[in-house]
Amino acid sequence: MKTFSELTLDEQVGQRLLVGFDGTELTGDLRYLIDTLKVGGVILFTRNIESPEQVKELADALQGYAASCGLPPLFVAVDQEGGVVARMKEPLTVFPEGAPALNTVEAAQHFGRTTGIELSGVGFNMDMAPVLDVQPDGFSGVMEKRVFPGAPEDVGTLGVQVMACLEAEGVLSVVKHFPGIGRTTLDSHLTLPELDTPFAELMGADLLPFDTAFQAGASAVMLSHIRYTDIDREWNASLSPEIVKGLLRGRMGYNGVVMTDDLDMKAITCDMETAARQIFLSDVDIALICHRSDRYETLAETLKAMAEKFPGSHAISVGRILALKEKI
């Protein structure tokens, strides 16, 4: 695999893009995303999936085309949490109740191992899981059907088991949604939720599972789109220097790959140029955007301009991404 210095600036910038697409095969637009935008990864949704055999054929075609363009291997990602968020269906193993039913270490290991084997077998090398959000006792929020049961310590223990078992089978785990959305009732797909929970309270509960995962060597973390007003009153977490550079990387010492949640969500109220600048200034490595539009080009152009302005931090981010690709 090429090193950072062997990549052109356009290839370096492309590594920071993880994108969705339309279709179920290697289309002309997908080729363009790889050979021209030089994206570092793709994410599949139900619209891209017909069968395990078709997914494997698509994944192989994607990786083959990236290699023919002289690019590093692609992240081929999917949301496979089990329960209400599981893009791959039968004949793969279905865990209909998802994380709420994974209430023992053995259950978490079985999910992680089974999911890792099956995802790897059809060409995926990244799973946007596990969810490490904590739902307080007696609270009914937007994440109710997606969180592990129990106290923050239990969530951390179960999440790390899923994470480790996925990665043992060759599938990178992305823990989410930092710094925690278990207390929210509004959906960031539809609006910009705000959370006024005091920082000390977040530290004593919501952040504990993430700290456990970081201590266990979490490969990557996804940020939430929530605005945590006691930490940063201006920016939501995915665009916040206070949360990413200050809290995640500074106070908690995390030096792995950090990515946004989907920038198509309604919680992102600024334009894509502003979002790209904030991603760069916040020390976020990867911009995730899941629906094809000209915003892909806008992100790439703005990230390139920022990379030319701040080459040092850009090199560190791309270095993290390439190091993660070395794992697979």
From TrEMBL:
<dbReference type="InterPro" id="IPR001764">
    <property type="entry name" value="Glyco_hydro_3_N"/>
</dbReference>
<dbReference type="InterPro" id="IPR036962">
    <property type="entry name" value="Glyco_hydro_3_N_sf"/>
</dbReference>
<dbReference type="GO" id="GO:0016787">
    <property type="term" value="F:hydrolase activity"/>
</dbReference>
<dbReference type="InterPro" id="IPR050226">
    <property type="entry name" value="NagZ_Beta-hexosaminidase"/>
</dbReference>
<dbReference type="InterPro" id="IPR019800">
    <property type="entry name" value="Glyco_hydro_3_AS"/>
</dbReference>
<dbReference type="InterPro" id="IPR017853">
    <property type="entry name" value="GH"/>
</dbReference>
<comment type="similarity">
    <text>Belongs to the glycosyl hydrolase 3 family.</text>
</comment>
<keyword id="KW-0378">Hydrolase</keyword>
<protein>
    <recommendedName>
        <fullName>beta-N-acetylhexosaminidase</fullName>
        <ecNumber>3.2.1.52</ecNumber>
    </recommendedName>
</protein>
<keyword id="KW-0326">Glycosidase</keyword>
<dbReference type="Pfam" id="PF00933">
    <property type="entry name" value="Glyco_hydro_3"/>
</dbReference>
<feature type="domain" description="Glycoside hydrolase family 3 N-terminal">
    <location>
        <begin position="8"/>
        <end position="306"/>
    </location>
</feature>
